[in-house]
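User: Please predict the structure of the protein below. I'd like the answer in structure-token form so I can feed it into my own downstream comparison script.

Assistant: Understood. Taking the following sequence of 359 residues as input:
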Amino acid sequence: MSHAIRAPGLPSADDRIDAIDGLRFIAAISVLMFHFAFRCWNANSPGVMAYPILSGIAQYGYLGVDLFFMISGFVILMSAGHGEPRKFVRSRFLRLYPAYWACVALTFIWLSLAATGNPPGALQLAANLTMLQSLFAVPDLDGSYWTLAVELQFYALIFVVLLLRQLPRIDLVLAAWLALALVADRIPALGALSGALALKWCHYFVAGAICFRIRSAGLTPLRAAILALAFLQALRKGLWYMDLKERLTAVPYEPIVVLVAICVFFTVFLWLARGGGPKRIAGLAYPGALTYPLYLIHGEIGTDLLMMLADRGVNRWLALVAITALMLGAAHLILRRVEGPLSHTLKRWLATARLARAA
């Protein structure tokens, strides 16, 4: 008898909120358009693959990463609700690594075959397969991987909370994490903690997690205060990150656009926190599942292909549509042919190993 393989990482039918899947897809497409329609031509070959109509919007697509972090805060706290550290680690491992390994392997092969400079070596590949390459000062094979290290830091915090059985006090833990970020901004001596504890980005994880707490356990003065402080910190850091993008691209940004986008993120999540909208929205689950492999595969390979078409004189709009469709197709194949089956195999292997240890 054959068994259907459900896309890994999706919450159960009882817990999943389809709007979150829609937000995931919006975030992924935003980052893709930032790389394809703005940064690709701006950073590498100015004017060759320019999209004047899109670039003024696409330049803000990097904010999709901010949205991803907020989504993670909401969803990861949902998945940690069982309170078992081992089950949490297992679920995160099965969610993250199968698709990541496939995308790392494909990116390594692509860079090895297409690189005009020094191709990546075996050491860089091995380090990237762990997802911990930043700890060893090894470059990412794809620039998009930097966000995974930030995600892992949040997962590590939740794991410690579960290990110490402090999940009932998660509001206080999140408040302490956010407070440390606020203090570190003002005390240079604590600056070293920023990288180790993801303090530059923790406000989004905290905001998402608190919104889930409001949805599941109600609004309290403490949760309202934490969410308000996270919002103010998001506005501050949003302007900081915007300045960084201006320096990197030499393209001016409008602060009001960044601030309005962040306000929209918080408004949508507060709406979800208060039970707004239908829980089920047909057609969003699968696009949401596509976002992880799409995010992982589009960076190096997608931008390289886009520039190759530009060098061959292909119409820029045709190239943009074709490469975007190709990346969506690649994400579909990775999800269906690699992530799902490999996660299923690993899940069975882990279950067998657990039974063997028990015996």
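That's the full token string. Residues 316-358 form the longest helix (43 residues).
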